Amino acid sequence: MLGPWLHDWRGPQGQRCSFWATRPMAGALATLLRPRYLDLLVSSPALPSPVGSCSPEPEPLERFGRRFPLAPGRCLEEYGAFYVGGSEASADLDLDPDLSRLLLGWAPGQPFFTCCPDTGQTQDEGVRAGRLRARRHYLVERARDARVVGLLAGTLGVARHREALAHLRNLAQAAGKRSYVLALGRPTPPKLANFPEVDVFVLLACPLGALTPQLSGGFFRPVLAPCELEAACNPAWPPSGLAPHLTHYADLLPGSPFHVPLPPPDSELWDTPDVSLITGELRPPPAWKPSDDPGCLALTLRPPLELAESSPAALFLSSRSWQGLQPRLGQTPVTGAVSGRQGIAIAYEDEGSS
Question: Which of 9, 189, 226, 345 could, after both became Cys, cross-link 249 (CB 3.0–4.6 A)?
């Protein structure tokens, strides 16, 4: 079936190419493609390294849950992509998280083609990549509107997961949101439906599980990747279209070339007006202090809160001269009992005859 694939994917000779497939198929396909493409990359899955492991040899470039053996001086944004995998039955990107990660993070200006082994047909994925990026931008807006964030601890054996949890909690606190850490194992709709007060969930997992496969409308609340919470809570993060899509939470931590620290509390970035693209309302700027500030532990008196009624019935009641019995304990003078009016309501005795 390699012949139809090479015939259907018409590309100029000498162009840089990177593709994904199983190991036996990748070797056979690379043998046929090397005479046509001078610079060819064959990626492999980036299996997570255990806690405390270190290797003296330099690791290849790791992006989107895969490793790319780039030559010195080469950049991954210069390569086109050819993905071999999936099946005809799983045409929806929600059922193929590996392809979804690649489409989200690949350079938009480079070609991206896929090949289905069941049919041997190739397809240009530029349109589907645009729809997938638009969907993720919508989820970032949902995270910006959220008040309560649930951090799903999907991994407890990958390096720097504790540091990543602390980083995400600091992000939520800086944006004026409450965060809760939940260890539920594999996220499923019945599990997450037990927390209706949570607005969005953030899955903290290894690169191969950063984007959980979820059917449209399967979860009661959306499930985001850590980089999407970073884009929603960090005002110094690059805008949409310029920020990279990172699948590994370690890329967000200090020491990574993609790390963007939070601005100081007195920065003007926190006061920039922000309008929700979902509700159309103006988001108030968050007021926060860094966690190492000793003043944040001091107790301050909170002014009494007043209830604001916005119903028409409450407004009508407030405009009436008599609003019901009011005890007014201690505010009325004490007087003796006196005789009241006698008779019926239509004609009291002291009213006289008309």
Answer: 226
CA 209-214-215 angle, to 5 degrees, is 160
CA gyration radius for the chain? 31
Cα 280 to Cα 105, 230, 238, 274, 276, distances in angstroms: 29, 22, 22, 10, 5
For the residues 97-113, what does the mean pLDDT come to?
82
Answer yes or no: are the C-beta atoms of 200 and 142 closer than 8 Å.
yes
Cα 87 to Cα 89: distance, rounded to the nearest angstrom: 5
Are the CB atoms for 152 and 223 separated by under 8 Å? yes
Residue 59 has pLDDT above 60, yes or no: yes
The DSSP secondary structure of 128-141, one letter per residue, reads HHHHHHHHHHHHHH
The whole-number average pLDDT for the span 137-145 is 90
Q: Express each pLDDT in 107-139 by its tens digit.
A: 888 888 888 777 778 888 888 888 888 888 888
DSSP 52-68: T---SSPPPEEETTEEE
State the Cα–Cα distance between residues 174 and 230, nearest whole angstrom.
11
Show the beta-strand stretches assigned E in 112-230.
112-115, 122-124, 148-153, 178-182, 200-204, 223-224
pLDDT grade, residue 42 (50/70/90)?
Answer: confident
